[in-house]
Design goal:
The structure holds two protein chains of two kinds. Chain A is α+β, with helices and mostly antiparallel strands. Chain A is built from 19 helices and 29 strands. Helices cover 33% and strands 23% of the residues of chain B. The chains are: A alpha+beta, B alpha+beta.
């Protein structure tokens, strides 16, 4: 085996990120690093200073007169439609003209010779308002009878009322789960370059170039074919650049077309955080019935989400919360309802997991309730409720066919020595010291596919040049996850060439049209298959050519590592390609893929929205300080399922990164709005994402190497972007156990998220008072 | 005394001379916009994310030394006489990758890559003097760098391995030449530059500083710029006249007088670490939780005190130690207890033309127990919700004197007078400390804000009395001590 020739960068190998050298040398170009065209102008957004009310005076004279200002844009300067709503509900103006719906809503934009001058000019606006009462959180919005921003969803199976009434045990509770800012290190940015006639070209940090293209086209009142959107890489996305950059693209393009000059728009970090959406915070009311063994009999849940001022993606986000409110557990009778409620805050949006984490954490809270009520190890309760034969239908009527959790959790339980360590934790706490410990092992089951079924399609464009070099393009975007590398590995293996022979090009709407957002963890699944389809088309032509040209049977033509066998002859890939070119064989192909089998009827709450599930489990051990509420993650062990990994190194990177990002969501990252509706945590000085020193002190991450996707996905791999984000719910539950120790584990700690030192200390005090 | 109306510094391998520089011009914009060196990134423009980390070398008492700094809030004028090293300089002349870069690639330490140049530079700063760091040392060195993709694990693995990648390094080869250039430039001149309506003066020495302030009492003194930098980048505040003093070696002096430690106002947090740990070992752990390395290298003790913030990290710990402040102006000096400097929110006992010259920390009386505590939402690189310093002298089982000071609990850093009184002349028992804690509401009415609620601040501050007593009696009562 050792001597078997292999190509560099084959599938299933630890190929480094394609831009790794450029990253470490600072030569990787992000949008703000692109050399600006001559006379490039800079735009900046002027925003509203109240949370809710009418604009009575908009005086921009001083702004216009400010040094360096070239133009001031308002809604009146929009030739097309003043709307960038991705939901189609037309509820998201680029610039508001009258009604202000959140503090920081865009009202106008300044275009100046430098970014600094544009920023300074913005401050000179005189805006007067007739304020209206505002409602910034779920409770206030409910009290003020605010509407939903989009239609709610109900998932129902069986008869939940009677089942709850007849259950031997029943617990009702409420949980609040905080939101999360994406805090991508590279903020939002767009550079627009006007072209001739109605054309405009943009470079932007976007996960969804096609949507940006359409939004810009609508705003300019031109067809989509006049707009090109390009993105080579993003400095992080996490869902925050799926719809949120539409605003910046639209404004930059408007300015560029009006002025006939290139225009760049980059908000500073504070404005980025104030005017772009975040993870939805949820208020979850649950009612769970169960038996003496801890088996769940019925669940009734209402998932209210702070959606902000417009619909954006709140519909599908709250839908996905319901899709994951079962996590890994069978609910015999169930009713789940969403409440996507409007608030006078920024419009919340996609964020890794897309509502799923808020559903999963509710399921795990119910498990905790049952375990503390019955005095059992929560892991036992979890296992008793896993989907299993005969109990395998989800609340949305899809049957779970690929469940591997029993094996996965058993494997992790052994490898991390859960039972012995849990006993040690109990012993430690029994000593009654200031520092308490907790341990928890939690599973994840995550549904893969866009629930908007039509999004599950992708295109790729592969060119083979007559020197044998290959250019690869597809609709997926690179935000750090390594998508470009993985798809290039697929192509390298298809042609049997080293990955270095493949030039990975930027994502652009002029090569692959009508792309879906790079989101829902679907990037490799969709684009890998589309690229493979393109390769297969080219290879088929090459095989036919070779068989005819050299007079051999087609089944004797093989693409081997570094060479091609044509019957008894062996030649290089370049030699074959050049011969094919001379014989006028087309060496370029557009590939395409759509996910099979899936369907979803939202009105009925029924279907098979997911092609397959990805699984994982994590065990976390923590310490808490019962004097201050400070916490530390002492150890985390992860076993995660990515099927047959396309690139284990990159996949482990996704798992580690998701784990720490999820820890942040559940511990130190807290969004705070004041009574005027102003976001007070709008930069890293006030909004605290994890640091290196916050990562688990011992951090063991493994992939379930024995797993293989039962569905014929690309190389039998599974999606990896989002599922591991829910693994650190183990950290949250371990903190809960440490808190519960002060009341001898008789009371469910009912921690709300994030478990900041303050929440932990207050929970300790509350449990002490109750016990 | 010579006057110079330009600044000059080495940027990677070439000298830069600038005549038009304002007080509010920052190094990062100069690098990205004027020099078109775009490897250095802007992530937050407030010194919290580290994406803009560059090295700044200057000649100090120990010769040429390089610090990692946040270019976003580093005033350009303050780079006079320095060597600025950016990510672009790190690759060898033969194109080979630096050991730190290769280690990061081999350990898959970059994902989106936007934070990566900053991590490379921070690790490089560590590698220069400690190529084989421990995990704890890596954690501390990277407290000022945020990564949102990797979860840090592969970066730490790269840091643990970086010492095994050889010693090829551009700054080692150039060192003698750089040192010569910088020394040749050292002309003892006052530097006075301006752009538009914004003027920056770098005094030639402290006498010159006193003289300048006497002439311009409204001038804004800028030390490490880790606070004033944000006025510029965040609030676009005009700085018509700034006097930059971070380079004044006389103010960086550290002296042990036998009965006290004298720390010059421009001693950085990083520079203060060793002497503080030597004389006040309890300060080590506290010090490690102040900001990140970049800010510890830039920020100064004098700056932290002089700006009068109620949430500065040094005042509570220093007040508990009985610190005294030396204030100087052209007419002379005066010395006050540190706590007396803080009059009210935003109001300090600083007269026109005066500046903070040094901080005097008296050595501990025998039988005195000290502690310094910080509570924040995130353990590292966060602003305190509550900070506290305790100094308690115990003789024969009785508390003979007690000092307790808190930050984050009032409009200024402040002593807990009632609690101190409640402890003094009481038996050294848990009950005494609990009684003292119960008096805190008489001294403090904390606020609620995004960092913590008033209720939490009070509760946690009271609990620190319990922690102090437990620790004084050898009972582990912090996360760090519980194993």
């Amino acid at each position: 085996m050792k001597d078997t020739p292999r190509i560099d960068g084959a599938a299933h190998h630890d190929t480094p990120h394609d831009s790794a050298i450029k990253h470490v040398t600072g030569r990787a170009e992000y949008t703000d690093d692109i050399a600006e065209p001559a006379d490039c102008l800079h735009a900046y957004i002027g925003t509203a200073g109240i949370a809710h009310g009418h604009i009575t005076t908009l005086d921009l004279d001083a702004v216009r007169r400010a040094p360096g200002v070239v133009a001031v844009l308002t809604a009146h300067d929009i030739p097309g439609r003043n709307d960038i709503s991705p939901s189609g509900l037309k509820d998201e103006p680029i610039f508001t003209t009258d009604l202000v719906q959140f503090h920081g809503q865009p009202v106008f934009a300044v275009v100046a010779t430098t970014r600094d001058l544009a920023r300074r000019a913005c401050q000179l606006a005189r805006i007067e308002y007739a304020p209206l009462p505002h409602a910034c959180d779920i409770d206030a919005a409910e009290h003020a009878a605010y509407p939903d921003v989009t239609a709610p969803l109900t998932l129902e199976r069986g008869q939940v009322g009677p089942a709850l009434d007849s259950a031997p045990h029943r617990i009702q509770g409420r949980m609040r789960v905080g939101g999360q800012d994406h805090m991508y290190l590279e903020g939002q940015i767009a550079l627009a370059i006007p072209g001739e006639d109605d054309e405009v070209s943009l470079f932007a940090s976007t996960q969804h170039p096609s949507e940006a293209q359409h939004m810009v086209a609508h705003a300019l009142g031109v067809p989509a074919n006049a707009v090109v959107v390009n993105v080579r890489r993003m400095g992080g996305g996490f869902g925050g650049k799926e719809t949120q950059m539409n605003l910046f693209c639209a404004i930059a393009a408007l300015a560029a077309k009006q002025l006939g000059r290139a225009v760049k728009l980059r908000p500073d970090r504070d404005q980025d955080m104030e005017i772009t959406g975040k993870r939805h915070d949820f208020r979850i009311d649950y009612d769970v019935g169960f038996d003496d063994h801890g088996r769940i009999l019925a669940v009734d849940g209402v998932f209210a989400a702070r959606c902000g001022w417009s619909s954006d993606l709140s519909g599908p986000v709250t839908d996905r919360a319901l899709f994951h409110a079962d996590n890994a557990y069978f609910y015999p009778d169930v009713r789940l309802k969403s409440r996507p409620i409007k608030t006078n805050t920024v419009s919340n949006t996609a964020f890794r997991g897309f509502g799923g984490p808020q559903g999963v954490i509710a399921a795990e809270r119910m498990i905790e309730e049952i375990a503390y009520a019955l005095g059992r190890d929560p892991l036992e309760v979890r296992r008793a409720n896993f989907y299993r034969d005969g109990a395998d239908v989800t609340p949305y009527h899809q049957t779970v066919e690929d469940n591997i959790l029993l094996r996965l959790v058993g494997d992790l339980e052994q490898s991390c020595d859960y039972q012995a360590r849990r006993r040690a934790v109990l012993d430690w706490n029994a000593k009654g010291g200031i520092i308490r410990k907790g341990i928890a092992l939690t599973p994840v089951k995550f549904g893969i596919s866009f629930t908007a079924t039509w999004y599950n399609q992708a295109g790729a464009l592969v060119h083979v040049y007559n020197d044998g070099s290959i250019q690869l393009n597809h609709g997926g975007t690179e935000m750090g996850q390594g998508l470009y590398t993985k798809v290039a590995q697929v192509v390298a293996e298809a042609f049997g060439v080293d990955i270095a022979r493949i030039k990975i090009t930027k994502t652009t709407t002029e090569k692959v049209p009508n792309t879906s957002a790079t989101a829902a963890s679907s990037g490799s699944d969709l684009n890998g298959m589309a690229a493979l389809d393109a390769c297969t088309q080219i290879k088929t032509r090459l095989v036919d050519f070779a068989a005819t040209h050299w007079g051999v049977a087609p089944d004797t033509v093989h693409f081997l590592p570094g060479r091609v066998a044509v019957g008894a002859q062996v030649m290089t890939f370049a030699e074959l390609v050049h011969a094919a070119y001379m014989a006028r064989i087309q060496l370029s192909a557009a590939g395409y893929y759509k996910t099979p089998e899936i369907h979803w009827d939202r009105a009925k709450g029924r279907g098979q929205p997911f092609y397959y599930y990805a699984y994982g489990a994590a065990c976390a051990e923590v310490s808490i300080d019962t004097l201050t509420g400070e916490t530390r993650v002492d150890r985390a062990d992860v076993l995660h399922d990515v099927g047959r990994s396309l690139n284990p190194a990159l996949d482990i990177g996704q798992v580690e990164g998701a784990f720490v990002q999820g820890m942040g969501w559940l511990t130190s990252e807290e969004l705070v709005w004041d009574d005027k509706g102003r976001l007070r945590t709008h930069a890293p000085s006030t909004y605290k994402i994890p640091l290196a020193s916050d990562r688990p002190r011992i951090f063991n991450v493994r992939l379930a190497e024995w797993s293989e996707n039962v569905k014929p996905t690309i190389k039998r791999s599974k999606a990896v972007g989002e599922p591991p984000f829910m693994l650190p719910i183990s950290v949250f539950e371990a903190i809960g156990m440490a808190v519960a120790s002060v009341a001898d584990y008789r009371i469910c700690p009912r921690l709300d998220a994030p478990a900041t030192p303050e929440r932990v200390l207050m929970a300790v005090d509350r449990l002490r008072a109750l016990s | 005394m010579p006057h110079r109306q330009e600044i000059r510094f080495l940027l990677n391998d070439r000298p830069v001379t600038l005549t038009t520089v304002g007080a509010s011009d920052m190094l990062l914009d100069h690098l990205r916009l004027d020099q078109r060196l775009r490897g250095t990134k802007e992530g937050c423009a407030e010194g919290d994310c580290g994406a803009c980390t560059v090295l700044v070398g200057r000649i100090g008492g120990d010769g040429l030394a390089y610090d990692p700094v946040n270019a976003c809030i580093r005033p350009l004028a303050s780079c006079d006489g320095c060597h600025v090293v950016t990510i672009e300089h790190l690759r060898g002349h033969d194109g080979a990758l630096h050991p730190v870069q290769q280690a990061i690639i081999d350990h898959h330490g970059s994902q989106c890559g936007f934070c990566t140049p900053g991590f490379v530079m921070a690790l490089y700063a560590l590698w220069m003097h400690n190529p084989h760091p421990s995990e704890d040392e890596l954690d501390r060195a990277l407290q000022g760098n945020l990564c949102r993709c990797t979860g840090y694990a592969p970066i730490i693995r790269a840091g643990l391995a970086m010492g095994s990648y050889g010693t090829s390094d551009p700054l080692i080869g150039e060192r003698a030449q750089v040192e010569r250039t910088l020394r040749n430039w050292h002309d003892g001149a006052r530097v006075d530059v301006a752009k538009g309506g914004s003027r920056a003066i770098l005094p030639a020495n402290t006498d010159d500083l006193a003289h300048i302030l006497a002439q311009h009492p409204d001038a804004r003194i800028i030390a490490g710029a880790t606070d004033v930098g944000l006025w510029v980048t965040k609030f676009l505040r005009d700085v018509p006249l700034a006097v930059l003093i971070g380079h004044l070696d006389e103010l960086r002096d550290i002296q042990d007088t036998g009965d006290a430690l004298h720390l010059g106002a421009m001693v950085s947090y990083a520079q203060a670490h060793a002497p503080l740990c030597q004389h006040f070992p309890h300060m080590g752990r506290y010090w490690d939780r102040i900001a990140g390395w970049q800010v510890r290298a830039m920020g100064t003790l004098g700056g932290n005190i002089a700006n009068g913030s109620p949430i500065g990290d040094t005042p509570p710990a220093f007040i508990a130690l009985g610190a005294r402040l030396v204030l100087r102006c052209a007419a002379g000096r005066r010395e006050i207890p540190l706590e007396a400097y803080f009059l009210d929110y935003g109001k300090q006992d600083l007269r026109a033309g005066e500046f903070v010259e040094k901080i005097i920390l008296p050595k501990a009386a025998p039988n005195t127990l000290h502690a310094a505590y910080k509570i924040s939402k995130r353990r590292d690189e966060d602003i305190s919700a509550v900070a506290a310093g305790f100094s308690v002298t115990v003789e024969g089982g009785m508390i003979t004197s007690a000092r307790a000071a808190f930050g984050g609990m009032a409009a200024t850093p402040k002593r807990a007078s009632h609690a101190e009184a409640a402890l003094t002349n009481q038996p050294f028992t848990m009950a005494s400390f609990q009684r003292a804690a119960s008096t805190l509401p008489q001294d403090f009415t904390p606020l609620s804000d995004m960092r913590a609620s008033a209720e939490y601040r009070m509760r946690a501050a009271q609990n620190l009395f319990t922690r102090f007593w437990l620790e004084a009696n050898g009972t582990p009562a912090t996360l760090e001590d519980a194993v």
